[in-house]
Structure formats: C-alpha cells, structure tokens
Amino acid sequence: MTASRPVGINLTRVRLIVAERFGVEVPTFQGEGPSCGHPALFIRLSRCNLICTKCDTKETWDWSQFDPRKESTKQTVADLVAWATSSPVELVVITGGEPLLQQTRLVPLVEELLASGKRVEFETNGTIAPVPELLVDGVRFNVSPKIASFGMDEAKSVVPAVLEKFAASERAAFKFVASSVADLDHIAELAHAHRLAPVWVMPEGTTAEAITATTRVLADAVATRHWHFTTRLHVLAFADTRGR
User: Are 43 and 92 spatial neighbours (Cβ–Cβ below 8 Å)?
Assistant: First the structure.
C-alpha cells in the first residue's frame, strides 16, 4: 500500500538543501547494494554529520575544499516531485551527505513520491534514527556504518541504539565498505553485537582496478560468511563521474 497524499502542506514552501539530482536527463542505475543495477533517480542532499577521510562525496560537507554556495542549492519539494515524476523510473534514491539530517522536510517528499507510484531508498550512515513517517511501505534503508578503516572514529560513526532501531524496522540492509579480511572480522563483530542483517559488503575503491583487486581479496571470506556482496557499478560503468 502506498501513502496517501499529505493534506495541508504547501510543497512549494518546503525546501531541501540539495547537492545534485540526476537520472532523468541522463539515465543511470543504482550502483550499490540490494538494488544494484536497477534503473534509478538520485537526489543527493548536502551536509553530513561525519567527516570520513575516505568519503567520495566531500563536496556535500567539506567546506575546507568546497564552497557550499557553489555545491548546493535549496530546492522545493514541489520541484523535486515534478522532476522525479517526469521519469518513468520507479526507484528514487535519496542519498548524501547524510539525508536524515533533513528528514522532517523529507517526509512530504517521500509521501508524494510514494503516492505517485515510486519507491524510495535512503543511503544513510546509520547515526540518525528515522522518524516513524519514513518507516512505511515502499521505503527501504541502505545503512552504511562507517568503520575505523574508512577514516572515522567509531565512537561517533557507530551508534548502537540507532543501528538496532534500523534492524528492528525490518526495512534496512546493512552495507559495509571493506578493504581487507580484517575489516570483515570487525564487521562480523558489529553485526553480531547489534543483530544487523542482512549484511552486504562492498569493496573499497574509486577505480575499476582498485575495486577488482579488493573484490578478489574479499570474495572468499564474504562467501564463507554467507553474506551478500555488491560491487560499485557506477565506478565500473562511469569511472566515478559525478552525476552518473
């Protein structure tokens, strides 16, 4: 069942801070996780609450390198809905940055997208619990906790209560970036401690060569644990070009 359209909300007055949107003018795919390879539209929101050294979208938060006035715009929910519904593609991926920083303003966007027949996936770092209005049919969460090898203090990037809430929702998959078998051992500890399932592993890398090499390092150990394995299709297909 999809959500009904919200009543009494002026969608032209609700604004989100957007880094980019793509997939309508130049078609693309979801590049990672359970929907890898599915045609998709992307709404990338600006701003993040983490500062991962290996982040590949620093233009959404690192103002020592990027100018937020050039890297983001405020766009209305009405404009975003009109843009997304101009395409027949069913899947809309809302990513970042960390999209749940803006989740109260995302609720009307998601409600409108669901009412139009879309389904929604959030890409989130798993540090902010979703509001109940987002835990509805048609919405899934790809939760990617950032482990220490990704360049982040786990005291800030791993929030047990939030991860357990995502797990309890049964609307989440847990997608970890890994570069070594030691990373997989640590992921197993986190998954066991916080009852995270299903687990997806994605090889670290921003080039096709690096992803292939890391895939071969990890493949046997991922298979032995009976976890899911995902590549980074956008890197393999589009050489990590922004907007693809």
Answer: yes
Residue from 76, 61, 67, 66 nearest 21 by CA: 76
SS3 105: helix
Which residues, 6 or more positions from 132, have their beta carbon under 8 angstroms from its beta carbon?
none
Rg over alpha carbons for the chain, rounded to the nearest Å, is: 17
Mind listing the domains of the chain with CATH numbers? 15-173 (3.20.20.70)
DSSP code per residue over 34-90: GGTTSEEEEEEEP--S---TT-S-GGGT-TTTS-HHHH-EEEEHHHHHHHHHTS---
Task: List pLDDT tens digits, range 23-78.
Answer: 999 999 999 999 999 999 999 999 999 999 989 899 999 999 999 999 999 999 99
pTM of the model: 0.93
Answer yes or no: is pLDDT of 2 > 80: no
Find out whether 19 and 44 touch, Cβ atoms under 8 Å: yes
| 172/135 Cα distance (integer angstroms) | 10
Sign of dihedral through CA atoms 244, 58, 97, 188?
Answer: positive
**Contact present, 44 and 57 (Cβ < 8 Å):** yes
Nearest to 23 by CA among 34, 46, 39: 39
105, with CB counted inside 10 A (0-12, 13-18, 19+), is middle
